[in-house]
Design goal:
Number of strands: 0
Largest sheet: none
Mean pLDDT: 86
Number of helices: 3
Shape: flat
Distance between the termini: 21 Å
Radius of gyration: 14 Å
Length: 72
């Protein structure tokens, strides 16, 4: 069962240079598993990809939803 999601503080997010992005849970699940980094990618690119995948999975977790591997 999904738990109530605490709203994000827009001012705190803006202060960190971030913006809101709302996606369907199935899109977040897909994004949390996706990595198209080419072989030999730089550490910077690999780190960015890992951060995006982590944040997608964290958003699902915060909403009390599972990262359903069948949601492609």
């Amino acid at each position: 069962m999904a738990r109530p999601v605490q709203p994000t503080d827009p001012e705190a997010e803006r202060a960190q240079g971030r913006v809101a992005l709302w996606l369907d849970p199935s899109d977040l699940a897909w994004l949390s598993r996706r990595c198209d980094c080419p072989e030999g990618a730089s550490e910077e690119l690999l780190d960015r990809c890992a951060r995006i995948r982590f944040r997608a999975a964290a958003a699902l977790h915060k909403a009390g939803l599972k990262d359903d591997a069948s949601a492609n």
